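WARN retry 2 of 3 for item q-0093 after timeout on previous attempt; input resubmitted unchanged.
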Amino acid sequence: MTGKMDDHEAARLFALSARLWPAAETEALGPWLLRSDSSTTKRANALGVFGAPDRPLDQAMAEARAWYEARGRRPLAQIRLEDRAVRDWLAARGSAPFDETHALVLPLPAGGASEDLRVAAAPEPPEVWARIESHGPEDFPARLAVMRRPELRRFVTLYEGEAALGAAYVAAAEDLALIAAVSVRPEAQGRGLGRALMGAALAQAADLGAGLAAVQVEAANAPARRLYARLGFQEAFRYAYAGIPA
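OK item q-0093 returned
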């Protein structure tokens, strides 16, 4: 893939990615998606603003706010930063985007793990995952529930001998595979295992039939962005979160 992705395709991938990190409770608001989940992940607890609303923007946002307030949750929206109409609407009401995230894509097949390391991949994770996955064991059961919802999924574990050193999650739908929860144990960091782990995840994404792999990385995470750039990932779009004002 070369050049900037066209807006229609970027919007399609934005919506498709939401299907690969599904919340426990969802409800359509026209083309938008209301999401609520017991996990702390913002993606599963924010309104997915996918394209132009099918009703006046004021009305759509008011309905979304009421939906979250009825559940005792913070009214939050996930917006593609290229969506100027929504950004301008929010800005006019004092709601600024935060936690900017880059969505990066890479055509498949690509990658491959080091021959010195062993890779295991299965629809269910080994017990060690709760100790590797970067958000920690407290939120792991709720995050695991999110990751178990897609039908096509792989939990990838990277081993050196019998020691599990890294983990990555892969889920696929249509032509896209989302790679998430990429984690290397702290004591093993600095050895290039992130690249090997991503190679293994990319191989699993291709095995699931995807033609395109995607990762989502916060703009502030410079080391991860450098790794993905070295692997050949290119930016598809950027998104952020914003409170839904009254």
